[in-house]
């Protein structure tokens, strides 16, 4: 079969009326920026891109209060620069910046808002484990010329596009416009993303789960129960054995699920309760939920569908349960059931 490049695929999506020319250009620009990030990550120590940003006595901190890695800053700058002049954006927002970035004066503005986590899985950069970029695209409200944070606070169901790129043994882009989820692999010789899987389906059943087990004692009771049953395997109520994986790069853990099924959890726990969760709604949970749902999977907070949440803050954090539908439903059911029993108990 003749290889289909990302550009060709975008033209097909435009002809099908799924996207307009401006959104097509936006995706092209983001994909090109991610190719530059792939080159930087691939260079590793030889490119002087490993380690912390800032100096030993003055580490550079991001809005999340996290010490930034050099590649966090480099990736953020590459994406900002690439998206400044194309005329397809009204503004963009990043995990690494407190407020939205306006389009510099002198450049044309577009109808779209772009949100991104420029380099997900930062804790794995220096140990050569897969990291990635995650992005989400929204429409800018018509009468807004200088978008503020509040203009980005739209539910995940209003996303026009979402995607991630994994910088691993190969560089892979996974994308949805709401008409299925598709995978492209970077052909390094040609320098183009080539369609490698169209219309991905995540199996509803799975025997593989991903969670940071070291947080177990901090989990809520329904999460303890759910994971306890997975670990009990054939000796427990689930009657089958489950295997565990945890890369600690959300993009890599989600890409494994998009590739062969599985379920991923970053639940609420006593340590992060005050923050509302670990992962960010606008540029981690919402785009991944859109991608997974379009591939036949499910994504909840353990209680609600992630994509129906009304965002309250640009850097808001939420619990994340996503992947093979059956397991997300079981884990979510255990949480809702426990809430009902607690409510009943409170009433009695
Ligand atoms: P960032 O690296 O973008 O801050 O993302 C957070 C993240 O690294 C996710 O990619 C990953 O799933 C999770 O945190 C790992 O958490 P932990 O360190 O608790 O295992």
The helix/strand order is: HHEEHEEEEHEEEEEHEHEEHEEEH
Q: Say what oligomer this is.
A: single chain
Approximate strand percentage: 15-25%
> Roughly how much helix do the residues carry, as a percent range?
25-40%
Which shape, going by the Cα principal axes?
globular
Count of DSSP H/I helices: 8
Largest sheet: 8 strands, mixed
Structural class: alpha+beta
Stretches where pLDDT falls below 50 for ≥5 residues?
none
Distance between the termini: 66 Å
Mean pLDDT comes to 95
Major beta sheet, strand line-up: 4-3-5-6-7-8-9-10
Number of DSSP strands? 17
Ions, cofactors and other ligands present here are: 1,6-di-O-phosphono-beta-D-fructofuranose
The whole-angstrom Rg is: 20 Å
Would you kindly provide a brief summary of this structure?
This protein is of the alpha+beta class and 348 residues long. 32% of the residues lie in helices and 22% in strands.
What attributes does this structure have?
binds 1,6-di-O-phosphono-beta-D-fructofuranose; globular; alpha+beta; 5-stranded mixed beta sheet; 8-stranded mixed beta sheet
Description:
- The protein contains eight helices and 17 strands.
- With 348 residues, it is an alpha+beta fold.
- Strand 1 and strand 2 (58-59) form a beta hairpin.
- Helix 1 runs antiparallel to helix 2, helix 2 runs antiparallel to helix 3 and helix 5 packs across helix 8 (325-347).
- The longest helix is centred in the N-terminal third of the chain and has 23 residues, at 21-43.
- The radius of gyration is 20 Å and the shape is globular.
- The model has no long low-confidence stretch (mean pLDDT 95).
- 1,6-di-O-phosphono-beta-D-fructofuranose (FBP) is lined by residues 95, 117, 120-123, 212, 248-250, 278.
């Amino acid at each position: 079969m003749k290889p289909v490049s990302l550009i060709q695929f975008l033209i097909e999506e435009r002809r099908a009326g799924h996207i307009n020319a401006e959104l097509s250009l936006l995706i092209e620009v983001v994909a090109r920026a991610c190719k530059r990030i792939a080159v930087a990550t691939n260079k590793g120590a030889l490119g002087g891109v490993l380690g912390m940003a800032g100096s030993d006595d003055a580490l550079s901190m991001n809005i999340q209060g996290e010490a930034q890695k050099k590649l966090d800053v480099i990736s953020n700058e590459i994406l900002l620069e690439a998206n400044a002049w194309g005329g397809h954006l009204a503004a963009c927002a990043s995990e690494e910046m407190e407020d939205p970035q306006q389009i510099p004066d002198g450049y044309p503005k577009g109808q779209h808002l772009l949100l991104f986590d420029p380099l997900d899985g930062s804790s794995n950069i220096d140990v050569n484990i897969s990291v990635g970029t995650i992005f989400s695209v929204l429409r800018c409200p018509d009468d807004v010329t200088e978008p503020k944070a509040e203009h980005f606070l739209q539910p995940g169901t209003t996303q026009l596009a979402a995607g991630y790129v994994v910088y691993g043994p190969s560089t892979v882009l996974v994308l949805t416009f709401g008409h299925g989820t598709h995978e492209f692999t970077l052909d390094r010789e040609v320098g183009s993303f080539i369609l490698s899987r169209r219309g991905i389906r995540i199996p509803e059943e799975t025997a593989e789960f991903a969670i940071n087990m070291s947080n177990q004692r901090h989990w809520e009771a329904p999460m303890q129960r759910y994971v306890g049953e997975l670990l009990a395997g054939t000796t427990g109520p689930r009657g089958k054995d489950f295997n565990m994986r945890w890369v600690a790069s959300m993009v890599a853990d989600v890409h494994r699920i998009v590739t062969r099924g599985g379920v991923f959890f970053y639940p609420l726990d006593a340590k992060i309760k005050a923050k509302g969760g670990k992962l960010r709604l606008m540029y981690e949970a919402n785009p991944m939920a859109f991608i997974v749902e379009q591939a036949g999977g499910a994504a909840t907070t353990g209680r609600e569908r992630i994509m129906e949440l009304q965002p309250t803050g640009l850097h808001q954090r939420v619990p994340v349960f996503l992947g093979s539908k059956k397991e997300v439903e079981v884990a979510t059911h255990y949480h809702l059931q426990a809430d009902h029993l607690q409510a009943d108990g409170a009433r009695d």
